[in-house]
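Raw record, unedited: ABC transporter domain-containing protein
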Amino acid sequence: MRHPLRRTRFEEFRALDDVSFDVPWGEAVGIVGRNGAGKSTLLKLLTRITAPTHGRIELAGRIGSLLEVGTGFHPELTGRENIFLSGSLLGMNRVEIRRQFDSIVEFSGVEKFLDTPVKRYSSGMYVRLAFAVAAHLETEILAIDEVLAVGDAEFQAKSLAKMRDVAKDGRTVLYVSHQMQTVTALCTSALYLERGRLSYYGPVDGALERYRASFSAFAAEQTDASRRAGTGELRARSVRLAEESFEPAEDKILEIDIDANTAMIGQYFVSVHVNDENGVVVVQCDSRNVGVWLDPATPQSLTLAIRDLWLKPGRYTVDVFVCKTGVLDSWEGAAVFEVLPVSPYPVLAGDEALASGLVLSDYSYQARPAGGAAG
């Protein structure tokens, strides 16, 4: 107002641009893409949390959302009261909530503590009850954003089964996730978003192939430090692996060189993530866990030795994060290595014996006749 003739400068950013698709009734559609591709924004538009700047959205039926588990929960209210409160905020009327009440309680497994304020719940109990309410929404379309990653392994499997049942009932499911195995298990088709644009829509395998292929191009971009996320106060100069390939039971050795910044005050730490070919973080190696904090005044050379991690054969990527109170440098795809198709076990039992699980493990069985000595 003081300078009405001075033009304000701004940069326009389109989280989504020229995205158009049709979803048939009863389809379970996975929405995949790298961080910042626009997946969560798309769900917010579809669920009317955010209005589109251009274009229109046509929905044939009510849409329910599981965008954030625990929406509408009040810590002072009991589990019973929160079922009604959260259900009403998620779009259910009182009759629907009463009809689904017993199913919600049974699914959550917190019936013994139903009249206890949720502020006294463990985090697992809180999550189970919140998901149970949202999962029993009686809508024609259900939008889900990463919520199946919560809870323990047993509850995740139970949640996935519930979502699969929803899809089988003929309701439409839109599912955003970085966990490719759940997209494969739940979805009948998938769309791949790349920098706000729809790059692919079709069978799940095709979308996952596009997603995996994006890793190489993204890793090449990240070698330029100026294009990486983070404040830039410190940058990793190089990341090197001792070998380009390892056997499953071998130690994985990684070397990291970090520049100095004499103007920076306070120590920093490093966190390394190892991801499988689907982008799922298999292990996080955070220097804080082993008491290693680093001085920014001098250049640092770190050697990370990952021991007793039996990775399954395949391709793995390494992300390196340099952090203080926030992220100073985020180098995704800093290194790539292969785990060779070699079994670390003494007996070859076939592929079926190695098919499940994210990693292999060093284990043993001891068999003995009932009531007899070990043998």
